[in-house]
Specification:
Layout lengths: L4 H11 L3 H10 L4 H12 L18 E2 L9 E2 L11 H18 L6 H18 L2 H16 L6 H16 L11 H11 L2 E7 L6 H9 L5 H7 E7 L3 H10 L6 E8 L2 E9 L4 H106 L11 E7 L5 E7 L4 H9 L9 E5 L4 E3 L16 E8 L3
Parallel strand pairs: 3-4, 7-11
Antiparallel strand pairs: 1-2, 3-5, 5-6, 7-8, 9-10, 9-11
Length: 472
């Protein structure tokens, strides 16, 4: 696939290559910009082809473009640019790079096919091409094949930390095993800058830099104390994207990053191999110049935390006050309800008492009226008392519950009803229902005996009866 002019210009700006070099790598990568840049760094060891004549280096201390807001310029050590390939090799490289363009489009689905094709192409190239171009194409093919097995940021960071420890020992920085964005956020939480190292495995200075500088007993404590450290292999997309964003031009490459709000700032970058003491001087100078950012962020974070705690305490106090008010209101409502219930119960009891009193009074009045009416009626029907000494008479005495006694003579032929009529007519009788009984022998005369004569009831020639009230 032929690369367009816009992609070529973008590639040249990011890698400082010539037009012919940019066109070659983009076409070899099938028009995929990221894969082409990855191929370029893989075959060039982090810079440009080592076997091509170099262009004059840029002045030391030049400014690297900063794509992060808030920083105007970054001190860095820029890359030494290289010259273009000779025209015959350019043409031959384009022709032989065509198989990679064809295979690159389906790299994730056809890894085995790519591996086989790369092996065949390498075998042919080693026999028919010059050694330089054969090695160049071999490295480019391996880069294309490796692009199909990328890892997530956290896994890539863990892989880098493990490989760094295995290769250079465990005395290096304490690498964060997460993506660089997450690492920047962690550093922000700790009030530190992020020390980001971009690892280019094929660069000629990489091993010596890791062995002599990044594991230096003098530098490592300084790094771990003042920064949060993150490292990334350029063969992995997370590190490669960071390198492209920072426009890293020379390796080894380290940068200090600061996370502010929702964006990340580039504080300073160091490109190229530096001894430990010099690197520490550069990093210390960055701390001195830009440490106010950390102080400002720390102060703002502390203020936010103070405000949060104050709001939390105010909310808690409000909740406590509200709960106390609710408890008091509930207690007041409960007391009021209890008082209202007691008043209601008292009112109901008084109402019942009044109703009972009224009922009792009505009942008493009704009883008195019934007694008065009965007394009047009985007196009207009661005949004359037989004179004393009259034969066939009997004297009946009726003893009241209060001890009073009423007596009268009756005809022996009178029925017991006449005796009851006599009792009903007396003033001292207050019972509506009662019975008459003898004491000895004990005998009670009730309704069933009212029609029986006094002679038949053995109440002649005389008898004493007790009135027994039966009202409830």
């Amino acid at each position: 696939m032929e690369a367009d002019d816009q992609q070529i210009a973008r590639f040249m700006e990011a890698t400082h290559t010539s037009f012919e070099q940019a066109q070659f790598f983009l076409e070899a990568a099938g028009g995929n910009y990221d894969r082409g840049v990855s191929m370029f760094y893989e075959q060039s060891g982090g810079g440009h082809p080592a076997d091509l004549p170099p262009r004059p280096p840029a002045p030391t201390g030049a400014l690297v473009a900063d794509q992060f807001p808030g920083i105007n310029a970054v001190n860095a050590y820029p890359a030494a640019a290289r010259g273009p390939l000779p025209p015959p090799l350019q043409l031959l490289g384009v022709v032989l790079g065509a198989p990679f363009a064809v295979l690159g489009g389906g790299i994730r689905l056809l890894r085995r096919t790519l591996g086989f094709g790369a092996a065949v192409a390498g075998a042919v190239a080693s026999r028919v091409l010059p050694a330089r171009l054969s090695a160049l194409l071999g490295r480019a093919g391996r880069a294309v094949f490796a692009a199909g097995r990328d890892l997530p940021p956290a896994a890539a960071a863990a892989e880098f930390a493990q490989q760094f420890t295995e290769r250079f020992g465990g005395e290096g920085p304490q690498w964060q095993e997460c993506g660089w964005g997450e690492a920047a956020s962690r550093a922000h939480g700790l009030g530190k800058f992020l020390f980001a190292y971009l690892h280019s495995p094929g660069h000629q200075d990489t091993d010596a830099y890791c062995r002599d500088t990044l594991t230096s007993p003098a530098l490592v404590p300084f790094l771990n104390e003042h920064f949060l450290c993150w490292g990334g292999d350029l063969r992995r997309s997370d590190a490669f994207r960071l390198a492209a964003t920072l426009r890293a031009a020379r390796y080894p490459y380290v940068a200090l990053l600061a996370f502010s709000g929702t964006r990340t700032r580039l504080i300073t970058a160091v490109e190229g191999k530096l001894p430990p003491a010099r690197l520490q001087e550069v990093l210390q100078a960055a701390l001195n110049d830009h440490g106010s950012l950390l102080w400002q962020e720390h102060a703002e974070r502390q203020q936010r935390e103070t405000d949060r705690l104050l709001r939390q305490e105010q909310d808690s106090e409000y909740e406590r006050s509200l709960a106390a008010d609710q408890q008091r209101e509930a207690a007041r409502a409960a007391a009021q309800a209890e008082a209202e219930a007691a008043a209601q119960a008292a009112e109901e009891a008084a109402e019942r008492a009044r109703a009972e009193a009224e009922a009792a009074e009505q009942q008493r009045a009704a009883a008195e009226e019934a007694l008065r009416r009965r007394k009047s009626e009985k007196r009207a029907v009661l005949g004359e008392e037989p004179p004393a000494g009259t034969p066939e008479t009997t004297l009946i005495r009726v003893r009241m519950p209060d001890g009073a006694t009423h007596q009268r003579r009756f005809w022996m032929a009178d029925s017991l009803q006449v005796v009851y009529d006599f009792v009903d007519s007396r003033d001292g009788v207050t019972a509506l229902r009662y019975s008459l009984a003898t004491t000895f022998p004990r005998r009670v005369y009730r309704q069933e005996s009212l029609g029986v004569s006094l002679r038949e009831l053995d109440l002649a020639p005389q008898a004493v009866l007790l009135l027994q009230p039966e009202d409830n």
